[in-house]
Design a protein that fits this description.
With 174 residues, the chain is α+β, with helices and mostly antiparallel strands. The chain has a domain at 9-126: Gcn5-related N-acetyltransferase (GNAT) (Aminopeptidase). Helix content is 29%, strand content 35%. It is built from six helices and seven strands; from the N terminus they run βααααβββαβαββ. A seven-stranded mixed β-sheet has the order 1-2-3-4-5-7-6. A hairpin with a 2-residue loop joins strand 6 and strand 7 (162-172). Helix 1 packs across helix 3 (43-52). The radius of gyration is 16 Å and the shape is globular. The relative contact order is 0.15.
């Protein structure tokens, strides 16, 4: 398989046809506390984002790739590298898989493809993720993909019940 493709999924750059999916996913308030979003995105803002997606990760310090199911030709999620730091050779990782496509091993495949790309092609030294302690599915996903818990950020994000701790997970390219 290629660098951004497994038997079941492929990772690709965002296209104009992804606008409605991005609008739906980015504007779901259930996910805002994880991604740091405080207000909805307009279609115009997302069109502009897609138009700039061709820019180099070394220029804009982030990369979003859409996750496609090859057999169905359907987009089921997205993976992100963010806060890219070329000097220290590290980046944060984010992943979203549509709830209808979860619990099928697709997130693990997508994350492993992103890890391979980040370590072999971008030559990153490490990846990290900040995961709310209540998000057990994400903690298990990152653990399955050889990330280790390296810290806890106390009362890091606001939640319905007050504040929630965030687990810091890292994977070092060794």
């Amino acid at each position: 398989m290629s660098l951004l493709k497994s038997e079941r999924i492929s990772l690709r750059a965002p296209e104009p046809e992804d606008l409605e999916l991005l609008f739906q996913w980015e504007n779901n308030p259930q996910w805002w506390n994880v991604g740091g979003t405080l207000v909805p995105y307009s279609r115009y803002q997302l069109k502009e984002y897609i138009a700039e997606a061709h820019r180099d990760i070394f220029d804009i310090k982030q990369l979003r790739l859409m996750v496609d199911l090859i057999e169905e030709g359907k987009t089921i999620g997205m993976v992100d590298l963010y806060d890219f730091d070329p000097y220290h050779r590290r980046a944060g990782v984010g992943i979203l898989i549509d709830p209808l496509s979860q619990k099928k091993g697709l997130a693990t495949e997508a994350l492993n493809l992103l890890i391979t790309y980040a370590f072999s092609f971008l030559k990153l030294h490490q990846l990290y993720a900040h995961i709310p302690e209540t998000n057990e599915a994400s903690i298990h996903l990152f653990t399955r993909c050889s990330f280790t818990k390296t810290g806890v950020l106390k009362d890091w994000i606001t939640s319905e019940k007050g504040y929630t701790d965030v687990i810091v997970m890292q994977r070092i390219n060794e």
